[in-house]
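Re-running tRNA U34 carboxymethyltransferase to confirm reproducibility after the cluster update. Everything else is unchanged from the original entry.
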Amino acid sequence: MIDFGNFYQIIAKSKLSPWLEVLPAQLALWQKQNHDNRFNHWLNSLKHLPHFIPDEIDLKEQVRVTAATQLSAGQEKQLRHLLLALSPWRKGPYDLYGIHIDTEWRSDWKWQRLIKHISPLANRTVLDVGCNSGYHLWRMVGEQAQLAVGIDPMPLYLCQFEVIRQLLGNDMRAHFLPLGIEDLPKLNAFDTVFSMGVLYHRRSPLDHLYQLKDQLVHGGELVLETLIIDGDQHQALMPGERYAQMRNVYFIPSIKTMENWLYKCGFCDVNVVDVSITTTDEQRKTDWMTSDSLADFLDPSDNSKTIEGYPAPMRAVFIAKKP
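Result of re-run:
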């Protein structure tokens, strides 16, 4: 079982304290519903994780930790085995005591594209919606966030995050809660809210934007990254059964449509700070994620299209404020 007691203590005397009215019961229910054989297997990796004392930790330029003395061959083999047991690793990369987890996504590239455009995270309380393994939470800590909270309902990602936390020396500035945004009350308590790669998975994108706004303080900042298409302010793509082999893609807006959605939901000061085509260098198969990846989802005769014939993935980062 995962113990969330430290998080409860941290938020008890903060502006997040109203969350305690519902959160313990929600997490207890989640653990009861997700206690299956796979989860037990992943938890077992946590229990058998060897203890290392960190020497140097870098969260500013990467997520990297080293020990004062090099791991023995046996220690490295044991650690690598335990980390591989938590595959697939999709978001990263991580460098942990000499072991490089080469994840499917170069999430550090996305971070580099947006970090220079957002409000400084120092001393801010931050929420990352759909945080996967929590890679960006550690980069937020590297930017001196006071508290970085990630939510994602997937049990594997929770275990991946907890392994990284332990290997980083049990840093308590970042926390992972296995919840979806729809599970959160209207907290109005986060200075910055990130939603990266989530919007197009929501049946109602406007409801998602309202949910994000409900988590922000007045004057707080939304950082949203999503798939986009070329087009005017009236256009959005609603794919059929699959988009790039993903089943749960509902709406992919144009930049102007996305801006209109944000304004319609009550955000202000909307800016597009980056537009990037997703390449097979940024998303690909690795030894840590061996199933199909982007190269398998594109038309082999025309990489500007998905295998279904839609425009290939292009992503934009939007920044907006809650009045």
